[in-house]
Structures are given as structure tokens and as C-alpha cells.
Amino acid sequence: MTKTTTLEYTHDGSVFEAYVAAPTLDRARPAVMICHAWAGRGKHEQAVAHRLAELGYVGIALDLYGKGVRGQSNEDCQALMTPLVENRALLQERLKLAISAVHEQDYVQADNTVIAGYCFGGLCALDAARSNAPILGAASFHGLLGKPDNLEGQKISAKIIIFHGYDDPMVPPQDLIAFANEMTEAEADWQIHTYGSTMHAFTNKAANDPGFGTVYSESADRRSFESFNNFLEEVLRHLS
Fold first, then answer.
1. CB 116 within 8 A of CB 145
2. For residue 68, how many C-alpha atoms fall within 13 Å in the half-sphere facing its CB?
3. Contact in structure between 55 and 30 (CB atoms under 8 Å)
4. Pairing between strand 208-209 and 214-215?
């Protein structure tokens, strides 16, 4: 039976609250941290945490906005996300603090963790890797890929995997090429999985707005998670 708890941490006087799902909380296991989409930590990220717990990992849905802070409309979400997208140093600092808080927990193998994210959270996971936070791998699901302006020349030690819908209007194909070039220059171990006839938010079953470019895809959702599971088995040391 999956065990759940919450994990609070602070940054610049603000309190953040992560959601934890694990097979057990009485011994350390490899952990997979999940960065949320632009609305804030919600049911989707928590469901992923439970799915990871079923695989034997500690699944931790991080909070990057603040305890209880959620966007209700597209305008709300944009207002919450934009300050972090525009200040990548702040985003990276907040990510490292969250990762540090996770690594301090007795139920986590601190040297055996991966970070993943969805949409805005994909950018977060990639920035954790770009800033060489203490993780072994980073995964982005239909994430933003824009290069930060504060890490020029930085090498990347974590392994990188991208899951992308080719028809995503928020991340056009030329952005994939720019990202591939960036990762190559950073000497990263990287891979990109691209799904045809697939838009943004393809893992979110509630996404059904073709005009906005967000549509769920059962096949891309299934295929990406299967590949993600393979990535975790490669990157994380054997479950004990």
C-alpha cells in the first residue's frame, strides 16, 4: 500500500509544500521529483507520484509557487509562471533548495534521484540539470525548452530525456534543433522522443483545447511513460 506525506520547505520567507507518495517511508529508496505545470502542484503531478510509487520509487510532486498557490485561469497561470521563466537564476535557486530538502529525508537515497516535469515543469527539470543540481537524470514531458541566459558554457552531467509532441505550438520544431545543439555543446547525454500528430499537454487527460494547442493523446502518454520507465531503470541504481 502506498504511503503518503507532505514535505515543507522555505525560500525567501515563503513556505512550499511537496506531496510525497512511496511504497514505504521507513527506509530509503531512489526518488523521482516531479515539477508541476503552470497552474501549480495539482492532481496530475500527484497521480504521477503515485504511479512512480507503484514502480518502487519515492514519487515527490514539488511545489515551486508556494503552499496553496494555484492558478485558476490561463491568466492566473501565466502570471505565476512568468516571473520564474524570466528570472532563471531565481528558478534554479528555488529548484536546488527543493532538491536539497528532498535529499535530507530519511526515506530518500540522496545520491540516487531523478527530476522530471510537465510543461513549465519540463523547463524546471531541465534547468535543474543545466545548473548541475545533484541529480542523475532529468526528463521533460511536453516541456518548454528555452535556454537560460545565466549558464553559458556550463557542462551538464545529468542524463537528459525529452518527450515532445511534434505539433506542439508552444515549442516548434526549430526549438528542438536549438535544444539539441545546446545539449551537444554542454556535452550532455541526451535524447529526444518526438510524437507525430501530437500537441502540447499530451499526458493530461483533461486537455482538450485544439485552439490553444493542448490535447491529450493516449498513445503519446503511454509511449512516453514506458520510455520514461526505461530511462529510470537505466539512470537510477537498482532498487533495494
1. no
2. 2
3. no
4. antiparallel
What three-state secondary structure class fits 94?
helix
Class of domain 3-235: alpha beta
- Domains of the chain, by residue range, sit at 3-235
pLDDT value of residue 81: 98
Residue 95 grid coordinates? 529548484
Distance of CA 148 to the CA centre of its chain: 16
Confidence bin at 237 (pLDDT 50/70/90): confident
What is the Cα–Cα distance from 187 to 202, expressed in whole angstroms?
Answer: 29
Contact 118, 143 (CB under 8 A): yes
Judge whether 193 and 161 are in contact, CB under 8 Å: yes
Nearest Cα residue to 220 out of 121, 144, 123, 141: 141
Q: How far apart are CA 19 and CA 204, in angstroms?
A: 19
Cα R_g (the chain), whole angstroms = 16
**Residue 191: strand pairing partners:** 161
Residue-wise pLDDT for 87-101, tens only, equals 999 999 999 999 999
152 CB-near residues (< 8 Å, 6+ apart) = none
CA atoms within 13 Å, Cβ hemisphere of 1: 2
